[in-house]
Amino acid sequence: xxxxxxxxxxxxxxxxxxxxxxxxxxxxxxxxxxxxxxxxxxxxxxxxxxxxxxxxxxxxxxxxxxxxxxxxxxxxxxxxxxxxxxxxxxxxxxxxxxxxxxxxxxxxxxxxxxxxxxxxxxxxxxxxxxxxxxxxxxxxxxxxxxxxxxxxxxxxxxxxxxxxxxxxxxxxxxxxxxxxxxxxxxxxxxxxxxxxxxxxxxxxxxxxxxxxxxxxxxxxxxxxxxxxxxxxxxxxxxxxxxxxxxxxxxxxxxxxxxxxxxxxxxxxxxxxxxxxxxxxxxxxxxxxxxxxxxxxxxxxxxxxxxxxxxxxxxxxxxxxxxxxxxxxxxxxxxxxxxxxxxxxxxxxxxxxxxxxxxxxxxxxxxxxxxxxxxxxxxxxxxxxxxxxxxxxxxxxxxxxxxxxxxxxxxxxxxxxxxxxxxxxxxxxxxxxxxxxxxxxxxxxxxxxxxxxxxxxxxxxxxxxxxxxxxxxxxxxxxxxxxxxxxxxxxxxxxxxxxxxxxxxxxxxxxxxxxxxxxxxxxxxxxxxxxxxxxxxxxxxxxxxxxxxxxxxxxxxxxxxxxxxxxxxxxxxxxxxxxxxxxxxxxxxxxxxxxxxxxxxxxxxxxxxxxxxxxxxxxxxxxxxxxxxxxxxxxxxxxxxxxxxxxxxxxxxxxxxxxxxxxxxxxxxxxxxxxxxxxxxxxxxxxxxxxxxxxxxxxxxxxxxxxxxxxxxxxxxxxxxxxxx
Length: 724
What we know:
It is a single chain. It contains 23 helices and 20 strands. Helix 11 (321-392) packs across helix 15 (468-489). 53% of the residues lie in helices and 20% in strands. With 724 residues, it is an alpha+beta fold. The strands form four sheets. A five-stranded antiparallel β-sheet has the order 2-1-5-4-3, with helices on both faces. It has a five-stranded antiparallel β-sheet with strand order 7-6-10-9-8, sandwiched between helices. The protein has six domains: 4-87, no CATH class; 91-198, PAS domain (Beta-Lactamase, 2-Layer Sandwich), CATH 3.30.450; 217-319, PAS domain (Beta-Lactamase, 2-Layer Sandwich), CATH 3.30.450.20; 320-427; 428-565, Histidine kinase-like ATPase, C-terminal domain (Heat Shock Protein 90, 2-Layer Sandwich); 587-723, Rossmann fold.
């Protein structure tokens, strides 16, 4: 028997498909057959009937279980359908189905949102209505190709929204066939790529800007890829280069090529630098010379780009060859300037030494002139006056009145005394025959006798031997300062302190008089007012390397301190290489066996004149012509070889400037005396020759006696210098 629950369950089963309908028909036929068989149950044995009932019940349970499974599967199918519908409607991609004519058959919610139309309104509308007018041909061609070939189509076009807004989409189309009606349809998936298009446009613009910048850079730029393999030489390949790089590196069409292929002899240091950057990621900035890159200097900035495994390095090149050349030119210029500065400094120092030497010579010359005048007064005028007085004595006993002779006698006596006083003032004899201490003591006595000035002389240390010019300068300076005290201080006493150290002599003169303001010496008019006073003394002290310090104030007296070096520039201590050379030459000069023999070197561009001079002195046994030359250069060499003590030089030579010749001879051979010869009188040239070092200048037209007198006179002067 069939269970009522089973029958009810079977009635509740909903048949949806054709297969269910056929299955139901088969079940009804089986049921009719079962009724026929049930009529035969009465004749069956009970055991068979019981067995049949058991089978029916088991079958009934199986059917129930299958029905439960069917309901479960149906529920899952409905859930899957709901999920599909949800995914279909709310997918980010718009899905549409259009028929062969292009009319919309179905669309999801995303499509409706994208096209700004209700989904119900989309059905039946032509899809081409939404295609931008400029892309109609694109849609038509792809739809036609799809219907004809059935091949999948993917393309991009622009669609128009309901409000007229335009947006870009990516369409993927496939052809499907509806099995129920046998019609073809087109399934379309549309993805909005408007933002992607905008990003691509921005990227394109950025790429254009980058490319424009890349190509317009003055700096060379390249991207290289390193090959670092154990079994292959280190190398790199160019991935990207700009025009500036090609221009600066002289590498053309280098993209994709290896450096060792382009420049087989390229320096290994370049490869190692780029390898280290690629491996470590540490950027470098350096300046290097590229022998294989056009023999030019480059400033290089290299840094890794991309992942480390790519081993790519970006390199910025700056051609700094011009800068390097400029720097080298500046360096050489600086060296030249430094050399010139050193030369100028040496020249200035030489001139300063010469100035100091001239100052010493000036002091010496001044003192010699004083001595000459003093000697003239003493030896000539005073002797004449004394003789006149002596000759006047016998006449006193004769006719003239005694009072008249007495007056003449007094006048002569007064003249003699004045002459003697003037002689002593000009050049005291004791100054040249005694040391500085004794001379200052004599000056102290004379200041007291003549001006009533009491002078306290303080000697703090034993005075060493001083050169004559230095001793005279200190004496004259102290004399000048004591005269200032006597004439301007308002006091009748002064103190002189003399001390010495290893390097200097210091003499200080002080008083307690009215004093003065030292600032007056900063006023330009002070020079004119002071004459040869303190300012002159200060300048003269500076000429010989010393200084004058003035300490004073109104009402507080004054103290003037003179400091001079013990060793002046004309002493035995050389100060420069030139001075050392002079000392070396002078020291090496042999001593003449005969002081009376005069060795003469003739320098004249005219042979006739040289022969005339040779004849002039040929009969003089104490004059020997040791050589002759036609120009200054040969003269210098001959002077070094023959070692004369006198040079007669023609001042009209053309092969070598006479000024330069005189200076070279006096520099290299300072003991040699030079006499300049002029055909005509030329005072400026003669003065220049003397300044260059010539002892004197004489005309070639002078008499033979005058020329010989000049030779003997200059030579005797040389001998005097040697003796002193």
